[in-house]
Structure formats: C-alpha cells, structure tokens
Design goal:
Number of helices: 13
Largest sheet: 7 strands, parallel
Strand order of the largest sheet: 3-2-4-1-5-6-7
Helix content: 40-55%
Number of strands: 7
Distance between the termini: 26 Å
Radius of gyration: 22 Å
Oligomer: single chain
Shape: globular
Bound molecules: guanosine-5'-triphosphate, magnesium ion
Strand content: 5-15%
Order of helices and strands: HHHEHEHHEHEEHEHEHHHH
Length: 318
Amino acid sequence: VDIASKLKTNPAKWDRRTIARLISEAEANPKKAEVIVNSILPFTGNAYVIGITGPPGCGKSTLINKLALQIRKKGKRVGIIAIDATSPFSGGAFMGNRVRMREASQDSGIFIRSMSSKGSLSGLSLATSAAIKILDAAGIDCVIIETVGAGQMQTEIASTAYTVVVVLQPESGDIVQALKAGLMEIGDIFAINKSDLEGADKAVNDLTEFLSTGHYRGEWVPEIVRTIASRGKGVVELAQSIERHRRYLESSNGILARKNEIVRNEVKNLMYYRITKIVEKKLNLPESQEIFKDVVAKRISAYDAAKKLMGKNPDREM
Ligand SMILES: Nc1nc2c(ncn2[C@@H]2O[C@H](COP(=O)(O)OP(=O)(O)OP(=O)(O)O)[C@@H](O)[C@H]2O)c(=O)[nH]1
Ligand SMILES: [Mg+2]
C-alpha cells in the first residue's frame, strides 16, 4: 500500500476521504498508526501546530472557527483536531465543537476532525500525533488542536503544539482556575474571549499583573489579545500574535527546542503504551495467577510479586 503517494498530493486536489480514513485507522489501531506514520514520514514536518486550550465553555471552538477562516484568507490550508474529553461530566463537547465550527466546515480548505481522548494516559490520545502527521503529509499548512484545559493532565498541549493559545473568559475565578490547572505557565498567547461581557478589563489587568511576575516559559513574554469570538472581533489580532510568536520561535532557537520537546513527549507516550501492553500480558500469564495466590496467602508480598513479574518476559515483543 502506498499510503504516502495517495496522500501526497497534487496540491490542487486533496483527498479528504483518504485523510479521514487514515486518521480513523490510526485511531482504531496503534499498529496501523505505526505503519501509516512510517510511510509518510518523509512528507511531514511542514505544518505549523497551534494548540488552543482553556476552561470548558470559554469559546475555544467559536474562536477556532473564526481563526481558521482568517488563516484561510492567506491561502493556507487548515486542519482542526478537536479533542473530545468525554467524561461523565461533559457529554456534549463533541456536538458543541461541530456546531461552533460550522462555517469553517463549509470551507473546502479546512479539514475538521474530532478525536476522543478516551483511554489515553495523558489527555491527548496516542493517535493525535499520528493525525497531525497525516494532515501535515497531506499538505496542510496549519493544524489547530482544541483541548479542554481543565484537569491537571491537560497541559500536555504544550508538548504537542508550537504555539499555545490559552483562552479565558472574563468570569471571576477563571484566572484562578487556569492557575490551578497549570494553564498560566503554558500560554504563549492569552485570548480574553467574551470581551463583550463585563469584567474584561479586570481580567486583562489581572492577567497582565500575573505575567509581570515572570510566570512563563522561556524569554517570550506572552501576549494578551481581547476577542469576541462570536462576532469575529480580535481574530485578526490573534492571528497576528500567533504569527509574531512563530517568527520569534523561528528567529531564535525556540523552534528546535519545541520540536525536541514534542518528539520527547511523543516517544514517551509510545514507550508508556508499550510498557502498559507488556504489563497487561504479564498479569494474564498462568504463573501470575499462582503468584497472586502466594500474595493472598501472605507467602510473599505484593512488592515481591511485582518484582518477580517484572523479571519475566512473556514474549520478545518488547
Ligand atoms: N458573549 C459571548 N459568548 C461567546 C463568545 N464566544 C463564544 N461564546 C459562546 O460561548 C458558548 C461556548 O462556546 P464554545 O465555542 O462552544 O466554547 P468551548 O470553549 O469550545 O466549549 P467546550 O468545547 O465545550 O469546552 C457558546 O454559547 C458561544 O456562542 C463571545 O465572544 N462572547
Ligand atoms: Mg469546544
């Protein structure tokens, strides 16, 4: 199967069905993901990856919809991956994202895809990295990833994207929440969305004050942009800010540092995945059942059992 040539493309004609199918295959089966990624590797590395994160309901999808259309005006192709953090608490994120991005979904130069974060250790699924590469190899210039920045693990977007936009709304407590979720440290740009609502000035002031204490990574001083996503206000400024950050990274060594961080994170996730598989296999070995009985009977401790099992190689698949 020459996936690469199918995907790699006569730029005039990009095959959405192939992209969609490859992402589905990568999502369903890590072995397939490996085959796909390995075959398209030479064609990757050109797309610029932007992460958009923030608390639930702050307007991320609405903003991405407008941002994607703005980037399209420069003639670039845009891929959007909305990570659906389906949890018992937020059932409807998937539908919400779709509805807010309707305009963008009608643009022939924009490809939108939702992916589940279910079953991942880290919030972003293993398949997300594969999906980014598939879009990249298909000739997409810019990939935007939407993640909900709520839990502690959600800062992984910082190890996935080149530019991270943290979206906040001028609600009392939003900045405090963002602080707790570790979002303040990862934002290259802060969008105070819903600036039509009361409290926007205060939010900007609070944020400016917080940032003046130097709580950000690297030398780049995060920029603050006011937006009203629902009316498309501030979107040009946001796109310009992203472009400034990109130029900053490219003119410093920042871009290489980020690429290293991203690769490290990806390899780490793949290692965890493999180790998890091995642990599961070991737990199912017949000898393991005997070892569990030994622990129940207090002949050995759980610590000893774990050590014993670590030493056993169920097969050579590792
Ligand atoms: N007043 C106001 N409402 C907005 C603005 N931007 C978005 N909204 C509304 O806020 C609600 C949530 O918007 P979404 O774009 O779905 O927010 P989200 O952050 O993607 O939400 P989740 O993906 O569920 O976390 C919707 O009802 C939007 O219409 C804005 O600038 N001003
Ligand atoms: Mg959304």
